[in-house]
Specification:
This protein has helices at 14-39, 53-75, 81-113, 121-145, 151-191. It is mostly helical and 203 residues long. The protein has one domain (14-191): Four Helix Bundle (Hemerythrin (Met), subunit A). The longest helix has 41 residues, at 151-191. 22% of the residues are buried.
């Protein structure tokens, strides 16, 4: 079947791939929440459980919502370009705000406990990813949403924007996995030969 003039054809299997990606993303968020609730004691801001806000916010912001933002141009390829740009940017804003809450939570938790910040590979990778994410959004906003950038400049930068967007997303996933592994190692170190401290938060 011919697509309307000027519009890109939509692959027949795309809706199934998108539905699977959403199911997978929501499952990751739900499993993270269940892990924090059942095995980490839950989530709270004004207690030792404040640390648990960090992994949940990072998974929601820099993995689920950032992934959805990258899918916008595939899912809504036949919508008005301005609409997809705005939706792409807004999803990244939500991802940034939620990730920022996660960062504030872990830094505030360390401050209250008197612990050092940025003491692990995960923490340095996390800061790098967050700074790259923010820089990517600001540059993208300046080039594609803020009026004033020339068409030729946008065309030259677009491939770099797409590449760095995908790279930052993959770095986010890798950093999240690194953080979960770090949490597991902390927990195993605290448990030692006994297993009676399973609900204590990560230091």
């Amino acid at each position: 079947m011919e697509s309307p003039a000027g519009r890109a054809p939509t692959p027949g299997a795309l809706p199934y791939y998108v539905a699977f990606s959403q199911l997978l993303g929501l499952t990751v968020v739900a499993v993270t929440g269940a892990w924090l609730g059942v095995y980490r004691g839950g989530i709270a801001w004004e207690s030792a459980l404040q640390f648990n806000v960090h992994p949940l916010c990072m998974i929601i912001g820099l993995v689920f919502l950032q992934g959805d933002a990258l899918l916008v141009y595939r899912v809504f390829r036949n919508e008005a370009k301005r609409t997809t740009k705005v939706l792409h940017g807004v999803l990244h804003v939500f991802a940034f705000v939620i990730a920022l809450v996660g960062l504030v939570a872990v830094f505030d938790y360390h401050r209250k406990k008197g612990s050092a910040d940025l003491y692990s590979l995960h923490s340095w990778c996390g800061i790098l990813v967050f700074v790259l994410f923010l820089a990517q959004w600001l540059v993208g906003f300046s080039f594609f949403l803020f009026p004033g950038a020339s068409f030729s400049l946008r065309s030259r930068y677009r491939p770099q924007h797409v590449f760095f967007g995908a790279a930052i997303f993959l770095l986010s996933v890798g950093t999240a996995l690194l953080g979960l592994k770090e949490a597991l190692l902390f927990q195993l170190g605290k448990l030692g030969p006994s297993r009676n401290q399973i609900n204590s938060p990560v230091p």
